[in-house]
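Can anyone check this?
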Amino acid sequence: MNLIESTVLGLIQGLTEFLPISSSGHLVIFERLFHIEANDLVFEVFVHFGTLMAVLFYFREKLLAVAGSIIRWFSRARKSESDKANIKLFWYLILGTVPAAFIGLLFKDYIELAFASPQWASGMLLVTAVILLSTRWAMREDRNLNEGRTIIIGFAQALAMMPGISRSGSTISAGMFLRMKKSEAAEFSFLLSIPAIIGATVLQIPQFIRDITNADLVINYLIGAIVAAVVGYISITYLMRIIKKGKFFYFGLYCAVVGLLGVLFL
C-alpha cells in the first residue's frame, strides 16, 4: 500500500466510521474497486485507532468526568449525583461491550472471511439501509438507558462486526427503537465504540508487530490513522447536528444506492 492509497482509505474511514454508512463495508468495496491491498485487517484496525482518537477528543470532557468519578468511587470520597450517573455510564459501557467481545472471539475466522467479499459487504449495506430508513417510524423518546437496553444495543454493535453493517447506524437505531432520546443514543453509541476499537486493536497487535520492520508500511499506516482521526472528528460533529434535526434516516437512502450498485456490479 502506497501513501496515496493509505490517505484515501484513511479519508474513507474517517468519513464513514461515525456516519451510519459502514466504514468496513466502504473499505472492502473501495479496496476491490481500486485493487488496493490493505494487508487484511491490520490497516483497517490501525485507521480505526485514528477514529478512536477522534471520539476521545470530542467527548474529552465527558470522559474526564467519568474518570474523576471512578477515582472518587475507589477512594471512597463523597460522591455527588453526577458521580453516581457517571459510574452507572461506565458500567453500561462495560456491559454493552460484552456481546461484541464474545461474538468477535467466537466467530473471528468467519468475520475475516466476510471482509474478503465485496458482494457480501454490499448486501449488508442494504440491510443497513433498511435499519436506518425504519427509524423514521421510531416511537416517542421517553426512556433512559438501563441494563436491558444496554445489552440490546451491545448486540446491535456485535451485528455490526460484519462489513456493511454500520456500527453507529445499528446502535443509534437500536437506541431510537428503545425510545431513547436521539442525542443520548448517539452519545452512548460513540462512547461504546471506545472499548470496541481498543479491543480490536489489541487483537491485531501480534500481526502489526510482524509488519513493523517495514518502515514504509508503518509510515503509511500512521498517515492513514492521522487522516482518519481528523476527518472522524468532523464526522462526529456533523452527525450530532443531523440527529438533532431529525434527519438521521436519510443516510438509509445513500446505503441503499451504494449497496444496490455493489450487488449488481461487483
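Reply from J.R.: I decoded it. The first helix runs from residue 3 to 18.
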